Amino acid sequence: MLPVSEDQIKAIGEVLSNDKRPLKERFRALFTLRNIGGPIAIELISKCFNDPSVLLKHELAYCLGQMQDEKAIGTLISVLKDENQEPMVRHEAAEALGAIGSEEALEYLEEYKHDKVVEVAETCELALERIKWLKNSGDETKNLSQSLYNSVDPAPPALSTNISELKEILMDNKATLFNRYRAMFALRNIGSEKAIAALGEALNYGSALFKHEIAFVLGQMQKECSIEYLKHSLEDDRENEMVRHECAEALGSIATEECTNILNKYLNDDKRVVKESCIIALDMCEYENSPEFQYANTLKTV
User: With contact defined as beta carbons under 8 Å apart, do 184 and 206 qualify?
Assistant: First the structure.
């Protein structure tokens, strides 16, 4: 990205913080700030955790984690500790702390791994495992944490490339969540139809946290053969909204005409986070079918 002035960054921040702007514009502003990085961008993102949109706050935390800048740790710890914040937001703050990987977060993750909200507790456990893994792994192993999809993942991929073996770990409720995630990311990296089928089957099992990550991974892969699995979970109104939201965004990444048709059906869903995810997902569909090089570049409009 070309050099950006402080005034330009602040103008993008104004788009992000303005709840009168369409949600898709605010999302594009957020991801532009993530791509710019630096202390001003972090400050502007951090100011928006009082927004009424749970989806937006969840993405704020996600972006702060992906930036991997320790300046965001204080904000993320505050969000994790704030029991008035929605579980989906607190979970993402914990995951972001794991993505940054600083030992500064360890005491807070240890405290909240016993949180009464299961998704928060499980995420803290995962984040702890990731930070410990980074600390104890040699330089060669640390390269595993570099995702093929340019994302900071909550666990490194397993070393195995045996799909049957990985599926067995993935579906094993007695295995640690960290090892199940490692199997998940290994299957993502294999990327074959057989690997996708294993992931798709797992979308019906396990905790909401586990299933939401499966959906996220299927969205990263952008393979049409995963649409049936994502559609099934999005359509199930008994499913946790955290899972349904991630299925919607995954369909937005795949961005076929079928995906667009599915998403349009849920633009008035009873769950706000699902409805808003469909709005954002349809915007992603539009981008994926356009000549735009970069999904979010608010610099062009400020």
Answer: no
**pLDDT attached to residue 168:** 97
Question: Could you say which residues of the chain have pLDDT below 70?
Answer: 1-2, 138-146, 290-302
Q: What is the CATH architecture of 1-136?
A: Alpha Horseshoe (1.25)
The pLDDT of residue 145: 57
CB-CB contact of 121 with 148 (8 Å): no
How many of the other CB atoms lie within 10 Å of CB of 298? 23
Q: What is the pLDDT of residue 148?
A: 79
> What does the domain layout of the chain look like in residue ranges?
1-136
First to last CA, the chain: 15
Dist. CA 44–CA 76, nearest whole Å: 14
Q: In Å, how far are 97, 112, 131 from 106, measured between CA atoms?
A: 9, 10, 8
C-alpha span between 241 and 209 (Å, rounded):
11
Per-residue model confidence (pLDDT) at position 159: 92
- Distance, C-alpha 38 to centroid of its chain: 21
Q: What's residue 142's pLDDT?
A: 58
Dihedral pair phi/psi, residue 167, rounded to 5°: -65, -40
